[in-house]
Specification:
The chain is mainly alpha-helical and about 280 residues long. It is about 75% helix and about 0% strand.
């Protein structure tokens, strides 16, 4: 959750070097130190005002339990529905995180906190990178809570420690990609209320996937769109790595889910990371 930062807090926490570093290595260390300061600022805010964080966690758990217990008996899925569902909900939560990132970034912008950051002698990328770091740590906590809940209701991965950790890596890679989408949109949006328009886009993208049902159960054209959804690639890859039941298809994408689960997020990051940094640097005073 993001709240305005007082001048006292900002002055005490932000580094104030006398001059810009002369070497590339020094610039990198300076940028990382600045980014960590911004990340720590957001973590302190969440610790002091945990209401929104707890609400987001409860919502994610509610989605998992609702689909598993209320709709699971009616869903068409190969094998145990819980094992089919859990990878989908975990990936979906990573995508839905774009809304909280968008709101936090745009709220800081609207309240003048971003302008205060820009007036300080700090790396130009530190604010957006720091925001990404804080939200990524938030996502790690969300994944931990959802995995604990899933284990409690009977889900489990059937692979070794290596594939299991690789699956979590793919989930966080997807979240990292959506972070940069959210940061960029938050910097260009007019007000925090614009999140309603973002939800109109994000929710259909989230549900038009293989997260809850197999694309084979959809009309042909709709199933094809669902298969090529970046979310579907991550879900299919996680199911494969955890040896959970998944949908079958002869498409090239379905046969190489791990490859696409890496390519889609990397492509999004390659597009939206530089856009976010450039947009931040071009903000008007």
């Amino acid at each position: 959750m993001t709240v305005p930062t007082t001048n006292h807090t900002m002055s005490a926490s932000m580094p104030r070097p006398a001059e810009a570093p002369a070497t590339g290595g020094s610039r990198l260390r300076w940028a990382l130190a600045d980014a960590w300061t911004v990340t720590r600022r957001d973590l302190i805010h969440w610790a002091n005002q945990p209401g929104m964080l707890v609400a987001n966690l409860l919502f994610s758990v509610l989605v998992l339990l609702m689909f598993g217990f209320l709709f699971g008996g009616a869903m068409a899925a190969p094998g145990n529905y819980w094992e089919f569902l859990v990878p989908g909900v975990l990936a979906l939560t990573m995508v839905f995180g774009v809304e909280s990132t968008f709101t936090a970034v745009n709220t800081d912008l609207a309240r003048g906190v971003t302008d205060r950051f820009r007036s300080l002698p700090m790396a130009g990328s530190a604010v957006v990178v720091g925001r990404a770091g804080a939200d990524l740590l938030n996502s790690v906590v969300t994944l931990a809570v959802l995995v604990a809940t899933s284990l409690a209701v009977g889900w489990q991965p059937h692979s070794g420690i290596g594939p299991t950790l690789a699956a979590f890596g793919l989930l966080l890679l997807l979240r990292l990609a959506m972070l940069w989408v959210g940061i960029y949109l938050g910097l260009v949006a007019k007000s925090p209320e614009s999140v309603m328009a973002l939800q109109i886009l994000v929710w259909p993208v989230g549900f038009l996937s293989n997260a809850f049902v197999s694309p084979a159960t959809m009309p042909g054209w709709l199933g094809a769109i669902a298969e090529w959804n970046p979310l579907s690639a991550t879900v299919a890859a996680v199911r494969q790595l955890w040896e959970n039941p998944s949908w079958s298809s002869e498409s090239w994408l379905a046969m190489h889910p791990v490859l696409f689960a890496v390519l889609w997020p990397v492509l999004l990051i390659a597009v939206f990371f530089p856009l976010s940094v450039r947009r931040y640097r071009r903000l008007s005073h």
